[in-house]
Amino acid sequence: MTGTRDYDIVVIGSGPAGRRAAVQAxxxxxxxxxxxxxxxxxxxCVHTGTIPSKTLREAVLSLxxxxxxxxxxxxxRVKKDITAADLRARLDQTVEREVDVLDHQFARNGVTVAxxxxxxxxxxxxxxxxxxxxxxRVVSADRILIAVGTRPFRPDDVPFDDRIVVDSDSILAxxxxxxxxxxxxxxxxxxxxxxxxAALDIQVTLVDARETILDxxxxxxxxxxxxxxxxxxxxxxxxxxxxxxxxxxxxxVAELEDGRxxxxxxxxxxxxxxGATDGLNLEACGLAADARGRLKVDPQTLQTAMPDIYAAGDxxxxxxxxxxxxxxxxxxACHAFGYELPAPEPVFPYGIYAVPEIxxxxxxxxxxxxxxxxxxxxxxxFRETSRGHVTGPGSGMLxxxxxxxxxxxLGIHIxxxxxxxxxxxxxxxxxxxxxxDYFLNATFNYPTLAEAYKIAALDAWNRMMPRRDGRAPL
Length: 474
Prior knowledge:
This is Soluble pyridine nucleotide transhydrogenase. This protein has 474 residues and is an alpha/beta fold. The chain has three domains: 7-152 and 274-336, FAD/NAD(P)-binding domain, CATH 3.50.50; 165-271, FAD/NAD(P)-binding domain, CATH 3.50.50; 356-464, 2-Layer Sandwich (Enolase-like, domain 1). It has 13 helices and 22 strands. Strands 1, 2, 3, 4, 5, 6 and 17 form a seven-stranded mixed sheet that branches. A five-stranded parallel sheet has the order 8-15-9-10-11, with helices on one face. Strands 18-19-22-21-20 form a five-stranded antiparallel sheet, with helices on both faces. Helix 1 runs parallel beside helix 8 (322-336) and helix 3 packs across helix 5 (84-108). The longest helix is centred in the N-terminal third of the chain and has 25 residues, at 84-108. The protein is globular.
């Protein structure tokens, strides 16, 4: 301990940012306390966010036999009558194992965990209260990290009842599978849940005020993705706002501004998220959150306006990914105790765990064009790989964006099975400044989906190679 403080660092929240910060501090020989208001560690990521939604996806794909339908036909099913209980059993098992792993990680690193709600007394003291509000104790620390994450935004005019009208938290506790589902919001969370339920052969209608979806993703990738959505019957209502949402008996009714109504057994509202900072008493430590409960930090150090108080993870906003939150927690802990880290890589991968998956890193074709960068693209369809024939995904593509001047990779964009795994091959080459020649010359295991990199590189080379008259291509 430093001076008269109880701990060197107190971490509020045990999600990706909080747990990584606490363990990193412990490895630096510092005393760390993690305060977690949930009954189990792991935060939103483990209990209601990343892990549950991805587990739900895997459960659905396994039970439906979705991956084999390209071989056995669209009517193929592993389990005929899938219930909500089937999905919850898989969720409960996964969450239990994750919590067990994290408990063990904290224990072997000497990190202390206290369960309760945290509330600032001042810039170095934090109260811990029970669920009923009873004060348990007050702790002090030289440094404090706020890593409380976010919760679903719930507007007052949406009649949530966590049964018919739900958000991305309460949908995980469903007791029955609906025959039809309306998803309001075509952001990442909305897209993921819409496609997961569509894979269960549930009639899904996706509504969003924007004309297009996932605007940060390469448009050719999205076109391929949209084709898949329409292929398995999802209804898209884009470019129209929701006028009102109401319940009519056991159904939810969304009235749209274009005059149409969408009726369904269940409605999932995904209108963004808000930082879970409202109960922290931030005024006592000199901080204030914005209208969505987020905190502003120095992006290099993760310090707030109060130098001894740090914040990391979703509570600081963009990019709000579990992967980046882990690194932010590590960076905050290292800076707090005088250990400087190299600047993080300027680019990082995005993973969208929809059905099918999407993953992307670097510049997309539209961005390269906007920057007036001379470029070429190479494309591989998964059906061109032998592995694609063996596993039968039936769709999917990989796209490389390449600089014509340097031959370096500018971006990699993938839609299809294992996209979030495959992206890391391209990530390594891109971040190390490699050229697409690596893929031209590399030998890949056969048969694998990773061969798509070589196919895409050869496709680009065919476009870039000199013409037969010896002149360079235009």
